[in-house]
From TrEMBL:
One of its GO terms (biological process) is mitochondrial translation. Keywords: Ribonucleoprotein, Ribosomal protein. InterPro entries: Ribosomal_bS16, Ribosomal_bS16_dom_sf. HAMAP family: Ribosomal_bS16. The keyword Ribosomal protein applies. One of its GO terms (cellular component) is mitochondrial small ribosomal subunit. It comes from Zancudomyces culisetae. It holds the Pfam family Ribosomal_S16. This is 37S ribosomal protein S16, mitochondrial. Belongs to the bacterial ribosomal protein bS16 family. GO terms for molecular function: structural constituent of ribosome.
Length: 101
C-alpha cells in the first residue's frame, strides 16, 4: 500500500485551510485520511506576516520512518520544519548547439 503525506483542503472559497494528512496514495484527494498530522493556513497573519502551521512532530516522524512519501508541497513544508532534508532544485540542462564541419 502506497502511503502519502499530503494536504487536504478545507474551508470556503478564498478562505482555505489545509489539513496535513496521511492517506492512501491511490485514494481520492477528498477521501478519508488514515491520520491527521496537523493544519496549515496559507494566508499570512496581518499583524506578524507569518503563516500558521500546527504539526504533530512525533506522528510525522513515525510515518516518515515507516515509509510514507510526502508530496512535493508537503515535502517543502516538512523541510522547513526540519523533519526531512530540503530537496535540491534540479538543474535545467542548457542547450549546447552542435555544428557540423
Amino acid at each position: 500500500m502506497v502511503v502519502k503525506i499530503r494536504f487536504l483542503r478545507l474551508g470556503t472559497k478564498r478562505n482555505q485551510v489545509y489539513n496535513i494528512v496521511v492517506a492512501n496514495g491511490r485514494s481520492k484527494p477528498t477521501g478519508k485520511p488514515i491520520e491527521i498530522l496537523g493544519t496549515f493556513d496559507p494566508r499570512p497573519d496581518l499583524s506578524t506576516s507569518t503563516k500558521h502551521t500546527n504539526l504533530n512532530f512525533e506522528r510525522t516522524k513515525y510515518w516518515l520512518g515507516v515509509g510514507a512519501q510526502p508530496t512535493d508541497s508537503a515535502a517543502k513544508l516538512l523541510a522547513r520544519a526540519g523533519l526531512i532534508p530540503p530537496k535540491l532544485p534540479t538543474r535545467i540542462p542548457t542547450f549546447t548547439p552542435t555544428f557540423k564541419d
